[in-house]
Design goal:
Helix content is about 30%, strand content about 25%. By secondary structure, it is an alpha+beta fold. It has a 6-stranded antiparallel barrel with strand order 12-15-14-13-16-17. A 5-stranded parallel sheet has the order 6-2-1-10-19, covered by helices on one side. Bound molecules: flavin-adenine dinucleotide.
Length: about 425
């Protein structure tokens, strides 16, 4: 039998699953090309080495919301291979999972090595030809085939699946060089931006808060005096700005903005309205014989309380029963709207994912095949799709990888 040669470029989660699925068709001969000397370098560091593989959210519509406006592109992939399908796929490879807070799913072993090793074993069992140290340098169209150019060799493929990732954490192999090759193939690339990143702030005083974690706060982004995105949860101060889960999520939605137009507004008492907070401070505190500094320390972690004394310019030893109405209002306003000015939207060295990539308009969402060049497919982060934290990015990589791998064999797709 004259087998079809399927080349998969990039040995991350999307490429490994695409190769496994494509190789299940005996009419295919699958070649996986990876520039590193090992597979899944980024997969190994996911979830701080624990691999938050997916999210347990069962409502596909809610799941898709976590990718922002391009999320709808994933609907077809998820209808064929969603979170439970992914877990069953891995359970068949011997990996067991647990679900944690926020629906985050991890391997029971808490070890990303287990996930990577399971994929590599399956690739070998399926006779996928793994070519390490093969960095794709160019793709040329030769009749109805693809000539793949590597540093020291060339390869002629019938079908190609590109799964080279984005540009984040370039040390793992995803350096973004692939986009030049894809552009030469006349595909539009949506400008790449770091997403899920810490944010830099103008206020030098944040240095005094370095390492301080705030739980149950609401952080929002103000643009032209309107909140454009907000998230409730945990954030962390760094030496030059802010980080942590809600900051990462917010960063996704502002990565294409001009930082000069943005202010971070933190609500330190989101359970209470401004009025309720004001009443509570008056009612519960005013009759106590305590000083302002101690009131603040009741309301806030010590380092933040001390900073607030400076920002409010109120004598720290003042008895709170002597605070003026205006001073209480100022305090409440600062607790509800602690505003910080954003100067820096992060970089690719620290971003968990890349926003931007191959324009979804040029890809058929049902097959992951290019609408411009037949038999060319894309999967994973190389596509202009990026999700929030919580397992959404790996699920997108696995689902699109599955669909691309399967589409190389779909009867409807074997039309040429
Ligand atoms: C620190 C960190 C933690 C993360 N944690 C999580 C998490 O817990 N859960 C989650 O859902 N997501 C997480 N992510 C995001 C997730 O890892 C990525 O979205 C996912 O790995 C994308 O998979 P991919 O296969 O598309 O690309 P990648 O994993 O980036 O793989 C692409 C592969 O292609 C190879 N390659 C690139 N160019 C070429 C070329 N020219 N020739 C040959 N090979 C090439 C690269 O070397 C690489 O191995 C995390 C990311 C980071 C950086």
């Amino acid at each position: 039998m004259n087998k079809k040669k399927i080349a998969v470029i990039g040995g991350g989660p999307a490429g490994m699953v695409a190769s496994i699925i494509a190789s299940e068709n005996p009419e295919n001969e699958v070649y996986l090309f990876e520039k590193n000397d090992s597979l899944g370098k980024k997969l190994l560091i996911t979830g701080s080495g624990r691999c938050n593989i997916t999210n347990a959210e069962s409502d596909v519509h809610k799941f898709i919301e976590r990718y922002g406006k391009n999320g709808k592109f994933l609907f077809s992939s998820f209808s064929r291979f969603f979170n439970n399908d992914l877990l069953v796929f891995f359970e068949n490879l011997g990996v067991r999972f647990v679900t944690e807070r926020g629906g985050r799913v991890f391997p029971e072993s808490n070890d990303a090595n287990e996930v990577t090793d399971a994929l590599i074993k399956k690739l070998k069992d399926n006779n996928v030809k793994i070519n390490l140290n093969h960095e794709l340098k160019d793709i040329k169209l030769v009749d109805d085939k693809f000539k793949l150019v590597f540093k020291n060799s060339e390869f002629l493929a019938d079908k190609v699946i590109i799964t080279c990732g984005g540009k984040s954490y370039p040390g793992t192999g995803s350096t973004g060089e692939i986009f030049k090759i894809i552009q030469k193939l006349e595909h539009k690339i949506v400008e790449l931006k770091p997403s899920l990143v810490p944010l830099g702030l103008k206020e030098v005083f944040v240095k005094s808060l370095e390492g301080l974690s705030l739980k149950n706060v609401e952080a929002g982004i103000l643009k032209n005096n309107k909140i454009i995105i907000k998230r409730f949860g945990e954030m962390l101060f760094t030496d030059k700005g802010v980080s942590g889960p809600i900051i990462f999520e917010i960063s996704k939605y502002i990565c294409r903005e001009n930082p000069k137009d943005l202010t971070l507004s933190v609500d330190l008492k989101p359970a209470l309205s401004l009025e309720q907070l004001n009443n509570r401070i008056r009612r519960e505190m005013l009759d106590k014989n305590i000083i302002f500094k101690n009131l603040l320390r009741l309301l806030l972690p010590i380092r933040l309380a001390d900073l607030f004394i400076d920002l409010l310019c109120i004598d720290e030893d003042k008895k709170i029963k002597h605070l003026s109405k205006e001073e209480i209002n100022r305090l409440c306003n600062l607790l509800k709207h602690f505003e910080l000015h954003i100067t820096d939207l992060g970089n690719f060295y620290h971003s968990i994912v890349t926003s931007g990539g191959v324009d979804i308009k040029s890809i058929n969402p049902k097959t992951m095949e290019s609408k411009i060049i037949p038999n060319l497919y894309f999967a994973g982060e190389v596509i202009d799709i990026d999700g929030e934290t919580g397992g959404y990015n790996l699920q997108a990589a696995f689902s699109t990888g599955f669909v691309a791998g399967r589409s190389t064999s779909d009867v409807a797709n074997v039309r040429r």
